[in-house]
Amino acid sequence: MRTSSGVDAASPMLNKPPSPCSDTGAGSPESDAMVSPRRVEPSDANRDAAEAEGGVVARLTPDLVPDEELYGIAWDPIPSLYAEAQMVFDGLHYFNECVSGDLISISSHFNPFQIDTRQINKIPRVYINLLVSTSTLHRAMQEDISSVRSSALVQRDQDLFQFRIRALQDINYRISNPDVQTSDSTFMCVLCLLLSTMAQSAYTDWRVHLEGARKIIQLRGGLKKMISQNPFLKPLVAFFMIIDVGAATTTPSSHKYMTTAASMALHYWEAEVDIFQSILAISAPYPEELFQSLILVNYLRSISSKPKLASRRQAGTRMVLAKIRSFNPAEWAARMKGFRGWKRNGDGVEFDISQEIRPLDPPTRPLSRTNNQSSSLSPVDGLVTTIRSSETSGSDLWLTVGVIYRAAILLYAMRTLILDPSEGKEFLYEDDPTLDVEKLRQQTYQTLSRALVPLFHDMDCARRIGKLVFFPVFVCGMETSPDDNELQEFVTRGLQMLGQAMGTFGPISAVDELRRKWAADTAAPEGRRVTWDDYFRTRPDFIFGF
Questions:
Q1: What tens digit of pLDDT does each residue of 459-476 get?
Q2: Which pTM was predicted?
Q3: Cα 295-200-104 angle, rounded to 5 deg
């Protein structure tokens, strides 16, 4: 095909802009036809405004870019890998800005999960594929689901789905290759895939990845040996311990993996002195003493069906109750005042021991109940102010975290070890003859529900603090009465807010799980509730997520 000027339409000259030094305004109609109709020459004023704002090229390089190069970028054919490279850099940038901060407890300190994009050529492709797909999911959770998505966005999501497919193929190759199946890099890949899978759903194949990581640890000789060989694995090891122990809480005692998981967790403390302090630096900062108690509760649940171990379970129950009740959130918060998160090299956490330790006053006041609203859950103004105005590492915040976790783990222990089993409770009174289990449960439940209220006062509070207390919120929901509609609404709204704020479906899946639990309690015979074990025995593998 030829134009009226006799130039081949396929000729690259049609797409080549005239020299910026030529007089484009004086061209003939024939010469004008050689210029792409999409090109519009900006006026001097518009050009000055664009330069002042800084365009894409200006953000990529500080050097002045000649007009010829600008035109070349605009009109030359796009390289075949350009779109994919753009998705990679965009995804990694989004991960650093919006996702990595959710993996640590203190965002104002060093984050070992940040990706150095300057070293992208040294990052294994499998990590890139996982991180880009994770970022895509997180971004999708922030979008307005009521808006119409363009075909370009739909195509982009389809392209990004391929990143996850490639990652799965790469990991399958690694775990089937004897030379690398237990390597540090394979362990990191499996943990990254586990976290990514949990972000997508609380019911997917997360269990497969968790057990795969456990197998690698066992083949490597245990966590102690792994850490001694590579101390920089601690950030991922901390997540493994949290996920493993957390998964056991929503696993029935008869599950095929329960005994192995609960028994293995009993030896986590042997991996390194103060190993549980690493947990304080990630997004589920269980106080060390309470995390040990949670491990023990899971173990006692795992032997509940073994009559020969009844005396061990009863003695363990008394011990764990005493340990949790003796935990002092104020003293723990005073110690946490000097907490500085991960060390700069990422091989552990650090404390500023120069910080003065002094007793702390509780940051909250009891919720008021008005005459017109007998069960009013009004916000605790003092704590809302603390959350918004104080530093993330403020002692008041740590005190709140300590109070919340103490209440949640105490409720979990009482429910699964004392209230649900049908055996007699006489063994409890050997240490405390005055113990009133039901009264203690009710007081602990009120403490937990009241302390959680200000954390979901608005989206900002949920985004900054909600990630720290997901397990306590779930326990609060499990303990909520099926006829307490107001508290049910508070818990479900808080979890939905948390899921949207963090870009993960885990909390949203938890809402569905709690609603099923409340429905099951409603259908149970009058005066009875479905036990924790019986409920999860009838459900698919569920994990509350991070």
A1: 777 777 788 898 999 999
A2: 0.77
A3: 55
What are the φ and ψ backbone dihedral angles of 104, each rounded to 5 degrees? Answer: -120, 165
For residue 545, being part of any structural domain is answered with no
- Pick the more confident residue, 262 or 65: 262
Question: By residue range, what is the domain housing residue 183?
Answer: 100-356+387-537
180/44 same-domain check: no
Torsion of CA 242, 247, 249, 255, to 10 degrees: -140
**Which helix (H) or strand (E) is 350 found in, with range?**
strand 349-351
Closest to 159 (Cα-Cα) out of 206, 57, 56, 90:
90
Q: What is the pLDDT of residue 32?
A: 38
Instruction: Choose one of 60, 75, 90: the last residue of a domain.
Output: 75
How many domains, the chain?
2
Q: Phi and psi at residue 340, in whole multiples of 5°?
A: -120, 15
Determine the residue type at 367: L
User: Does 393 or 396 have the greater pLDDT score?
Assistant: 396
Could you tell me the pLDDT band of residue 197, with boundaries at 50, 70 and 90?
confident
* Same domain for 41 and 162: no
Within-domain flag for 367: no
Yes or no: say if 113 and 103 are a contact pair by the CB < 8 Å rule. Answer: yes
